[in-house]
Write a structure and sequence with these properties.
Layout (H helix, E strand, L loop, with lengths): L4 E5 L8 H17 L3 E5 L5 H7 L5 E2 L16 H6 L4 E4 L8 H13 L3 E6 L2 H8 L5 E4 L11 H4 L1 H14 L4 E5 L5 H9 L4 E4 L1 H4 L4 H8 L4
Parallel strand pairs: 1-2, 1-8, 3-4, 4-5, 5-6, 6-7, 7-8
Helix pairs in contact: 1-10, 5-7
The chain binds 1,3-dihydroxyacetonephosphate (13P).
1,3-dihydroxyacetonephosphate binds next to strand 8 and helix 9.
């Protein structure tokens, strides 16, 4: 199995802006270093550059548009995200959905820019479909559990198992993450036991009183 990957999406929570993003990055860097685990952050765009400069950890954009460099205004271009210091990007998060055609274009552009790619999906069928694009990771997140505090690992283990199966039947090499309501080491362990390569989470860390303590718990059963 690949090294487990814990990717923390800071979304647009104020608790994940600026100095707060840096504090979470500092904890993530330390805990990843002490354990055999990758921990990455997906901050807001304005925090990509500072995190990349000051910390040694994967930094993901939360979205890129299916738009190439040139005469476009107000778009997020994969090459620009890479130039700002991002090492990867989420594509098609449930809170930033794209059409299937745009998922394919955004993914192709992210790859061409040299970004690691995580395509987010909402069910088994879209997970299987996304596997045809050969991203580095597919992250299955049932939308109804996102931000609910109810863990996908407990509430819907079947969707995880069936998504892993669907993805692997299309492309053996594509790794799978799961997310929605993940907040403890137990959730992470269950996700790994169900065949995934890690988790994508947000509120459990970002909104915690002590994000470092949550991070330590997340890696405690790997
Ligand atoms: O959307 C998510 C991560 O991208 C999951 O969010 P929560 O961890 O807050 O449920």
């Amino acid at each position: 199995m690949a090294t487990p990957f814990i990717l923390i999406n800071l979304k647009t929570y104020t608790e994940g802006f600026g100095h707060n993003a840096q504090k979470i990055a500092q904890s993530a860097e330390r805990i990843a270093h002490e354990n055999d685990v990758r921990i990455g952050l997906a901050p807001g765009y304005m925090d990509i550059h500072p995190l990349n400069v000051h910390y040694s950890l994967p930094v993901f954009a939360q979205h890129v548009d299916a738009v190439s460099p040139g005469a476009h205004t107000g778009h997020i271009v994969a090459e620009a995200v890479k130039a700002a210091g991002a090492t990867g990007t989420l594509i098609n998060h449930s809170e930033r959905r794209l059409t299937l055609a745009d998922v394919e274009s955004a993914h192709t552009m992210a790859r061409a820019a040299g970004l690691e790619t995580v395509i987010c999906t909402n069910n088994v069928a879209t997970s299987g479909a996304a596997a045809f694009f050969s991203p580095d990771y597919i992250a299955i997140e049932p939308p109804e559990l996102i931000g609910s505090g109810v863990s996908v690992s407990k509430a819907d283990p079947e969707i995880i198992e069936r998504s892993v199966e669907a993805v692997r039947s299309v492309r053996e090499t594509v790794k799978v993450l799961t997310g929605a309501g993940i907040s403890t080491g137990e959730c992470v362990k269950t996700a790994l036991d169900l065949g995934t390569d890690g988790v994508l989470l947000a509120s459990g860390v970002v909104k915690a009183k002590d994000p470092e303590a949550v991070l330590r718990d997340l890696v405690s059963k790997i």
